[in-house]
Amino acid sequence: MSKTVFITGAGSGLGKGTAIGLAKQGHRVIASVEILSQITSLKEAASLEGVELEIIKLDINNKRDQELIREYDYDIFVANAAIGEGGPIAEIPVDRVRNIFETNVFSTLENAQIAAKKFVEKKAGKIVFLSSIAGAVSIPYLGPYVASKHAVEAIAKNMKAELEEFNVQVATINPGPYETGFNDRMFEEKQKWYDEDKNFTPSESMAGTGEMLENQYHPQEMIDKMVEVIAADHHAFRTAYPQDAEDMIKEAEAQNWEAKI
Length: 261
What we know:
Elements: E1 4-7, H1 13-24, E2 28-33, H2 37-48, E3 54-57, H3 63-71, E4 76-79, H4 94-122, E5 125-130, H5 143-163, E6 168-175, H6 182-188, H7 203-210, H8 219-231, E7 238-241, H9 243-258
Parallel strand pairs: 1-2, 1-4, 2-3, 4-5, 5-6, 6-7
InterPro entries: NAD(P)-bd_dom_sf (IPR036291), SDR_fam (IPR002347)
Protein name: Short-chain dehydrogenase/reductase
Pfam families: adh_short (PF00106)
């Protein structure tokens, strides 16, 4: 059955591919993008795939833009928009961490609360939080992003428990590392403040994490999985993908009980 899906952060990466993928499956998609220039590029990409999207400009941090979430009617709300930054958590300027939390946690929660109220009123609906493998495991030198996604996981778990009595579903999708450009930009962000001559963390210590960029997956398989899960009537609360990501999460959670200091 065709559904109406509202997805944030559809201007690029997995969000863009998922918006188009859902439309190809026959669903009505309200695709929000952060900046006006992304409207044209997304419209062109959708046209090339032979589908139409209802594209709107929505900066999830902008209170006026957030009102659009209240105005539309939809069956599923996908909180996909996010930003990222890496660097040693013991040294990164806290204002940069605060900025990440403003988008990934506080604004994401504000958006989801609007959708939740609409769904509670009609006793139906689903909220999907785009988390990450970083929402369930620790990844050294990606602490700011990891912390924000751990917060998203906690929000999703609590919201799931609290909204069940209203017949509102809540779930997370936790992608592994996919080659969309997001991870590359996240690693580059630290160069705006990190100075090897001033910071105590050696650049060599961070080099290993950067190797992740050389082993990223092709995004289409994740897009296909997101389309499948978002549109499904019932599925697991957490969808970690690919299988390597799920295995890594389960192993890390088990190791937490054995870790010593």
